[in-house]
Amino acid sequence: MKSLHFSSALLLALCACGIVSAEGWGTIKGKFVVDGKVPPPAELNITKDKAVCTKKKLFDENLLVGPDGGLKNVCVWVSLGRRDPQPPVHPSYEGTANEAIQVDNLACAYVPHVAVVRPSQKVEFTNSDPIAHNFKVDGFANNPFNSLVPAGGTYEHQFTSEERVPMVASCSIHPWMTGYIVCKESPYVAVSAEDGTFEIKNMPAGEWNFQFWHTSGGYLGEVTMGGKKEKDRKGEYEVEVEDGETTDLGVITVSADILTK
C-alpha cells in the first residue's frame, strides 16, 4: 500500500523537533470479527508451582473469539516508511508520554496479554504472585533481557527504540507463559478488546497506512473492510482520517483460516 512521504527537508527537521502541528484531528474505530469457526482456547498444561498456578484454569490467550465472533488482541498501529517522519502528536497524549506501563505476573499469566508502550515510557514488570518469575523479552531493535523478579517484586525497564512487530515476553520458569509488548514511538496504537472493538483518538487528519497484526495470525494479510476484500502481505491498509470526524471502519472481517494456520 502507498504510504505518505514528505519530501521537504524542512518538514523532516521540524517533525524531528516535534513542533509540526496537524491540519486537524480525527478518530478511527472499528470491530474485528472472525469469519468461520476457530477451536476454543486450549487449556494450558501446568507443570510447576501448581498451588499458585492452578488457582484458576489457564488457557492459551493467543486466539480469543467472543460469542458474536469479536476477535481480541488485534494490534493496530500507524505504519510508516523508513524515511517518513513520525506523525504529529496531539496534546492529549503529552500527559502520558512519561507514564509508567505495568505488566504483571498474576496467577502465572501475563496481565495484560498484550501491552503497549512508547520508548519514552518505563515498563514496570511486576510479580504479584507469591513465587518467583522471570521476564524474558526478545526484540530486534532493543537488546533482549532476562530478569528474575522475586515474589512481590518489580523490575523496571525502558526500551530505547520502537519495534517493527510486537516483542514476545516469556518466563523460563513457567514455560507456558507468553505475552506481547508493542513498542512504538507513535501513541497511535490500539489493541482490540474482548468484543473485537478498537479506537484510536486524535489522529492527525489525512491519509495514513495502518497495520493489522494479531497474536495468532501475525500480519492480517487479507481482510474484508467496508464490504470489500483487501489484501496486503504486511497487513497495511490505507485509512483517511477527517478533521473533527470519527471514521468508523465498521466490521473488519478476518478469515478463520488465517488465524489457525
TrEMBL record:
Residues 1-22 form the signal peptide. The keyword Cell division does not apply. Keywords: Signal. This is Rhamnogalacturonan lyase domain-containing protein.
